[in-house]
Amino acid sequence: MTTGPFFKKILIFAFPLMLTGVLQLIYNAADIMVVGRFAGSAALAAVGSTSSLVNLIINLFIGLSTGAGVITARHIGANLSERTHKCVHTAMAISIISGFAVCLFGYFLSGTFLKLMGTPEDVLPLATKYLKIYFLGAPGSLVYNFGASIVRATGDTKRPLYILASTGIVNVILNLVLVIVFHLDVAGVAIATIVAQYISAILIVARLTHLPNECRVNFKKIKIYKQELKEIMRIGVPAGFQSSLFSFSNVLIQSTINTFGSVAMAGNTAAQNADAIIYTCTNAVAQTAMTFTSQNIGAKKHENLRKIFFICLGTAFSISVVLGALGLIFPHQIIGVFTTEKDVIEIGTQRLYILMTTYFMCSLMDVAGCQIRGMGKSVEPMVITLLGACGIRVLWLYTGFLLRKELWNLYLSYPISWTITFIALMICYFVFEKKVKQSVQH
């Protein structure tokens, strides 16, 4: 990761990440397709309306896994074997503790949060049932995510892909069996998801026990090392806090969508899975920028930073434009994968028309934020994203949206917030790059 040319290496690293992310989406998409076609629009709305709440709670800890990956990559780049060893075992300890904490918190407070979001009465019981079961899988989910971050920090993005490929098949098969054969509706898809999550966790831990010595997990040595915890928290907490508050703005938007009824909720849910594919693919490029940058910072090869940054910006832009064009050409067919109800398809198409034409701004914003985080600066992109992406969305809900209370006007908050946040992050990047060069000269 510290020697050019970088374009080919970035693609080789990012492509398995993209496929991994798409397979993770299959978990949720499979849930939505099965309940949408075999359990009705109320079940579809119930499963879809929970995603922003799940992200709000879990993303704080996913941010810590990002911090673990960044610090591990930096220690590998600097050839600090002992520090790498301690970082890996601290990360696994954090994943276990946070997994059980999220499990208990989510299970007992699911219903309360859904009521606060204004979830309609015809959807609330199903949504609560789904969430309670889903959060039982939190320990497996977080162990997998922390473990996968460590594996990727070593340069291996293929093993996490293979793991999710196999567990994705398990998830889809269980969905079909539990919903169609045993008629378990939302409970069936939730059970299928958590079974797949625990299998993923077991497989990634097995891989961690076979890594090179400095990254190899020894169960007897899993504990919190103070210095490594401090470094992981320094990068991970702002990243997680940013993601959680980002999700909070989406919770507010979801709460507003809930006021339009279960049909609007179902249409929005179906469309979310389409734009999530673009986000997943381009976020893989953003994660690549962060990992490459972190290793080059560790190796003190600062002259490579701008090359990595602009290659990743161009790659993310190209991917989002191509996939966005497909969304514009085949909107009804895409939404039709999840439901056959015409009203739901029409509402989902509204979201696609607005987001597919502007999603490249979200992609550029993600790359810029991850690039800065890879340079060791996590608080600054957090603040910028909160004020830009989150703050502007909330502001739009109480200003622009009130002028015309329609779904298309609500969706405009996304491209407006992405654009402003990306501009601010670009300014921030050039300031930090200049400081890095000045520090090298002195």
Question: Structural class, judged by helices and strands?
Answer: mainly alpha
Give the count of structural domains. Answer: 1
Largest sheet: none
Q: Regions with pLDDT < 50 over 5+ consecutive residues?
A: none
User: What is the N-to-C order of secondary-structure elements (H for helix, E for strand)?
Assistant: HHHHHHHHHHHHHHHHHH
Question: What percentage of amino acids are in beta strands?
Answer: under 5%
The coarse silhouette is globular
Helix content: over 70%
Count helical runs. Answer: 18
Mean of residue pLDDT values? 88
The radius of gyration is: 21 Å
Q: Using DSSP, what is the number of strands? A: 0
Span between N and C termini? 25 Å
Please give a structural write-up.
The chain has 442 residues and is mainly α. It has one domain (6-441). The protein has helices spanning 6-38, 41-48, 51-77, 81-116, 124-135, 138-153, 158-181, 185-208, 226-258, 262-298, 305-329, 331-336, 342-356, 359-374, 379-397, 400-403, 407-411, 413-441.
Short description:
This protein has 18 helices and no strands. It is mainly α. It has one domain.
Overview features:
single chain, 442 residues, mainly alpha, 18 helices, 83% helix
